[in-house]
């Protein structure tokens, strides 16, 4: 009973991770092509999937509390242990893939932002002040004030 419920939860989790990987890859293409409307739609869709992950985790916590997958596997039949182990490996692999896709997207967005900033700097360079400005005084005190009193 416990194993079947955990297998179902891990299947859902794995499925959502695969959908997130697909979304991440679509986001990569949208960023490369500069399609901001598509990127915004993908971000909204990603938000929905993130909420699904939270629901799955809440369901897992409700059914199993603080018990770990290892605890549950120890009390299962060998066939269930094998299936749980397979799912665990698939989820770990999907998690790493998702992490790599997200890191690539972050790098692409950072580079895009740098290009935008460079373009803006080229279009609107900072102008030198037109008015004369008095050079800043260095050292102690203000202009005309000495560190010691020479009349003493």
Automatic annotation (TrEMBL):
- Entry keywords, A to Z: Bacterial flagellum biogenesis
GO BP terms in the entry: bacterial-type flagellum assembly
Question: Mind telling me what this protein is named?
Answer: Flagellar protein FlgN
Q: Does this entry carry the keyword Plastid?
A: no
> Which species does this protein come from?
Fictibacillus aquaticus
- One Pfam family in the UniProt entry: FlgN
Q: Which InterPro entries match?
A: FlgN-like, FlgN-like_sf
The answer, when asked if Magnesium is one of the entry's keywords, is no
């Amino acid at each position: 009973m416990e194993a079947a419920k955990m297998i179902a939860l891990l299947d859902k989790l794995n499925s959502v991770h695969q959908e997130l990987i697909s979304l991440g890859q679509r986001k990569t293409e949208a960023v490369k092509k500069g399609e901001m409307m598509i990127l915004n739609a993908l971000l909204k869709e990603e938000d929905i999937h993130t909420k699904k992950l939270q629901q799955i985790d809440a369901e897992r916590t409700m059914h199993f509390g603080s018990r770990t997958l290892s605890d549950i596997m120890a009390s299962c039949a060998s066939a269930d242990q094998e299936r749980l182990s397979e799912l665990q490996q698939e989820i770990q692999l999907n998690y790493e893939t998702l992490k790599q896709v997200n890191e690539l997207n972050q790098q692409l967005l950072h580079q895009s932002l740098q290009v935008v900033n460079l373009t803006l700097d080229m279009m609107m360079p900072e102008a030198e002040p037109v008015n004369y400005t008095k050079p800043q005084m260095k050292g102690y005190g203000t202009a005309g004030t000495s560190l010691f009193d020479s009349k003493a």
